[in-house]
Amino acid sequence: GESAIFTRKDSVYRKSSIYGKGVSYITIANLAFDDCYYDVIYFEGPGEHIAVIGNTIRNQNAHVPDAPPPAHRAGHAIRLKGFQDAPISHVTITDNLLEGNHTGHPRAYDEALTVMGSVNDVTIARNRVIDNDFIGIDLIGKTKGSLKNIGLPRNVTISDNYVQGNGKRHEWAAGIYVDGADKVTIEGNRVINN
User: Fold this and answer.
1) Cis before residue 153, ω within 30 degrees of 0?
2) Are strands 104-105 and 108-109 parallel, antiparallel or unpaired?
């Protein structure tokens, strides 16, 4: 009946709190992350059947200097990144709270919840994404230019999320942003004051 709360006291600001590369059948569920750094939860392809369910991520980078690299606020609360030659498939990101996270510095910003590159068959549902520095939920894909090797997220459903007050440090930040993807359904979300 107890809850695990992860915090960070080190000064290695460019290291994720939970990182998995080339892993499958992983579930991160019902944990709390407070004042962690960089990408709090980060999975990189190849992989399949990855679930991030019912977690709370708050105050990311709260004690990291708000300055240019190398000691700067950066990273995503949740990020999955696939590549054309190392895709991720069958992803579930549901029922998480991402609130009050500092995802950038004065010259660059990251999103709270990011699915990037060849990540396929994705469900992003019933998350609460509130008062983060930049974009709330973002799909990022590229097939040209310097990032063409990452490919596109495909077969993605973004539904029934509550997305409010994001973009506190950038007036052009969106609540939900699709920056290159294929076969995406966005429905039933409540998106307010981003």
Assistant:
1) no
2) antiparallel
* Per-residue tokens: 38: 């960089």
pLDDT in tens, the chain (194 residues): 777 899 988 877 778 999 999 999 999 999 999 999 889 999 999 999 999 999 999 999 888 877 666 657 788 999 999 999 999 999 999 999 999 998 877 677 889 999 999 999 999 999 999 999 999 999 999 988 888 889 999 999 999 999 999 987 777 788 999 999 999 999 999 999 99
Place of tokens 């895709």: 87
| pTM for the full predicted model | 0.94
Strand bridging mode 162-164 / 190-192:
parallel
Structure tokens at 93: 């990101």
- Count of helix runs (H) and strand runs (E) in the chain: 0, 21
Q: What are the backbone angles phi and psi of residue 149, rounded to the nearest 5°?
A: -75, -10
